[in-house]
Structure formats: C-alpha cells, structure tokens
Write a structure and sequence with these properties.
single chain, alpha+beta, four-stranded antiparallel beta sheet, 5 helices, 13% strand
Length: 157
C-alpha cells in the first residue's frame, strides 16, 4: 500500500476542495453543537499529537450528502497547509530558497484529516485504507459488494 505523505494528503484535500466536497467552514456555519464540540475536540487532539504545529485552513468539517450517505454516522474534519510553490526559473539560488522554504514548511505546518465515529473515537486518516474503514456495503453470495440501496465507495490513491 502506498503511503500518502504530507504532499499527497495536501493534494487529496485540495482535490476535495476543488470538487466541492467541503460545503461548510468552521465558525460561519457551525451552529450545530455537535460540530462545535467535535472541532474543539479536534483542536485539542492536534495540540496533543502535533504540539507546536500550525495550519493555514481549518479545522473545518468535510460534509456533503454523499459523505453522509457513504459513512452514515461518521464525521470528518481537516486542517490544511499549502506547501510553497516551486520556482518558475531554473536558477540555483531559487532552488535553494525553495528547498529551505519546503523544509521550514514540513517542520512547522501540518495537513491532516480526522474521522470521528458514533462513539466519539477519533482516528487520523493517513493512507487510503484509513478512509475505507466504516464503509459497509455488505456482500452478495459471490463475495462482491452488494450495491443495492447503499453507495459503495472505495478510496484508491
């Protein structure tokens, strides 16, 4: 299985943002008490597992009708930090500056997605299989996913 890594996670989140999966942002539309409690729990968890790290966007919920259908009672939240842009010109001093900024970014910033289940247990999502946990499509006699009436999602990165 392929490890996602910081850059891969950033790309996945950027794609999700581009395709409209994230439909709400924390603060503005988070009147829901459960969402506010989850966001507080998420912030505290981030401080515990990644002390001193920063992020540029979030924490915010990832929510859509499709996510609610596929994952039912699970909720997803994320923080995102955009890595520095690579240099446009092929000059050694620009490459050195980019390498320095990238190293600084990796030391100081995080991008992370978190799942909270029905019991309030939190799980950090690092690799593709982490996203697939909790999707129960059921199986037919041949061992294939039974797609009748349930969305079947398989995350492949």
């Amino acid at each position: 299985m392929m490890k996602l890594g910081l850059y891969g996670a950033a790309c996945v989140i950027a794609l999700m943002l581009n395709f409209g999966i994230v439909t709400r942002t924390a603060g503005k539309n988070a009147q829901d008490e459960k969402t506010m409690a989850d966001l507080t729990k998420f912030r505290n968890y981030l401080e515990e597992i990644k002390p001193g790290k920063k992020w540029q966007t979030g924490p915010a919920p990832m929510d859509s009708e499709e996510i609610r259908k596929a994952f039912e009672k699970q909720r997803f939240y994320y923080v995102f930090s955009s890595p520095p842009m690579p240099p446009g010109a092929d000059l050694p001093e620009l490459h050195e500056e980019f390498a320095r900024k990238m190293e600084e970014h990796q030391k100081q910033f995080i991008s992370l997605t978190m799942r909270i289940d029905e019991q309030g247990r939190m799980a950090t999502l690092y690799k593709a299989d982490d996203y697939n946990q909790g999707i129960d499509a059921g199986h037919n006699r041949r061992g294939r996913p039974d797609l009748r009436g349930r969305p079947y999602v398989r995350i492949l990165l």
